């Protein structure tokens, strides 16, 4: 696979509007991660714009299963926005800390529950993607390849990361780093070269976010 096949060919059948929407969604996604690094509540409005754009794109492509997952991302972003607004003294920035043992246990349970729920969505994906019709479709996980199974895992990783971010816990970045890193080869396999570069940027930004949040907690202890 050459650079043309990776970055240009998949978009030859796209309309100008579809390309513009994907570029806009990517821009707001990166902007959201930037605000997150800065512990700025604007992480959520920008993130919601990005996920809603992808909800629209996926819906129009008939990928209703993936669309439903992005709807869940949007709901989690609203939940995080509310929590950050409550815990911010200046209504913009928040203080961060390490997760407690109880929160780690809950995160583990959330991961397992997410694995089950996302697998169920994929089980019904042929029915969902067929406009909620069983005509000519059969339920099951037979249609999943290794990239789809990785998608199940990464989606659960990201959901835990979103929950920990909503709780302003430093460990959220660990989940973003792992998930973003896994998504790079997965997107290349799917022929989404531009998206794979986006996840490379996300991985680098997540590492910076982890270091920045960790440093801020150390500086607060010194004070």
From TrEMBL:
Record keywords: NAD included? no
TM region(s), chain numbering: 15-35, 42-63, 69-85, 105-124, 146-166, 173-190, 196-213
Span of the secretion signal? none
Q: Pfam families, from UniProt?
A: NMN_transporter (PF04973)
Q: Write out the GO MF terms.
A: nicotinamide riboside transmembrane transporter activity
According to Swiss-Prot or TrEMBL, what is its membrane topology? Multi-pass membrane protein
Instruction: Write out the annotated subcellular location.
Output: Cell membrane
Keywords per UniProt = Cell membrane, Membrane, Transmembrane, Transmembrane helix, Transport
Query: Which Gene Ontology cellular component terms are annotated?
Result: plasma membrane
Q: Does the keyword Translocase apply?
A: no
Q: Which family does it belong to?
A: Belongs to the nicotinamide ribonucleoside (NR) uptake permease (TC 4.B.1) family.
The record describes the protein's role as:
Required for nicotinamide riboside transport across the inner membrane.
Q: Which NCBIfam families match?
A: NMN_trans_PnuC
Q: Can you say what this protein is called?
A: Nicotinamide riboside transporter PnuC
Q: Which organism is it from?
A: Chryseobacterium defluvii
């Amino acid at each position: 696979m050459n650079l043309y096949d990776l970055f240009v060919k998949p978009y030859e059948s796209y309309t100008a509007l579809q390309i513009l929407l994907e570029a806009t969604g990517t821009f707001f996604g990166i902007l959201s991660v930037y605000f997150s690094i800065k512990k700025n509540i604007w992480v959520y409005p920008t993130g919601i714009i990005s996920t809603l754009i992808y909800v629209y794109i996926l819906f129009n492509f008939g990928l209703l299963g993936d669309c439903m997952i992005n709807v869940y991302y949007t709901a989690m972003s609203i939940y995080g926005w509310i929590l950050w607004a409550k815990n911010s003294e200046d209504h913009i920035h928040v203080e961060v800390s390490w997760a407690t043992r109880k929160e780690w246990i809950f995160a583990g349970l959330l991961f397992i529950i997410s694995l089950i729920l996302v697998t169920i969505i994929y089980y019904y994906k042929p029915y969902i993607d067929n406009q909620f019709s069983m005509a000519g479709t059969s339920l099951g996980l037979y249609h999943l390849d290794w990239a789809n199974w990785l998608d199940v895992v990464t989606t659960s990783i990201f959901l835990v990361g979103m929950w920990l971010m909503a709780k302003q816990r430093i460990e959220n970045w660990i989940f973003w780093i792992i998930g973003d890193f896994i998504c790079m080869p997965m997107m290349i396999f799917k022929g989404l070269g531009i998206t794979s570069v986006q996840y490379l940027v996300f991985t680098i930004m997540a590492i910076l976010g982890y270091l920045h949040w960790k440093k801020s907690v150390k500086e607060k202890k010194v004070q």
